[in-house]
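Much of what follows relies on a compact textual record of a protein's fold. Each token is a code from a learned vocabulary of local backbone shapes. The record below shows the convention in full.
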Amino acid sequence: MLALFLLITPIANAQDDIITKEDSITQRTVIDSELTIEKRSDGRVVPIVNADDLDDNQLNSVLRAMNYSDNLIERMPEQQKKFYASNGGVNIPVETTLKRYFVTSDGERILVTEENKFEIETLRQKEAQKLKSEKGIDFRNHSFSVVECS
């Protein structure tokens, strides 16, 4: 068993030393005498080892290289800037849209839009009346809608 472990260990360590094309550094940008930003071929910025020692302008330069917008950088606390710089990588913008659905008492799901929101409200009131008569529960002040991300 020990012999098997010893045979496998050098192979595992050798795999850690393999540099793939995505990991190779293809761009170096000198910001000043204390800071050079390195980018990998896939656009990721190499982690900054001494991020805690960087001033605000240097941190902002690193974050711009990581594709953060100036607007976002301005609102970011210093510790967050240092965190991102010390981890490296690249910022990928993500958009999330919220959709609102009305779910009827029989389980039908209807997307609520600006065009149909008044019709849905009328349907909601009818559903509330129906449930009140069937179950004896007043749902007038309850919401029947569901918010989901897509």
In short: The chain has five helices and five strands.
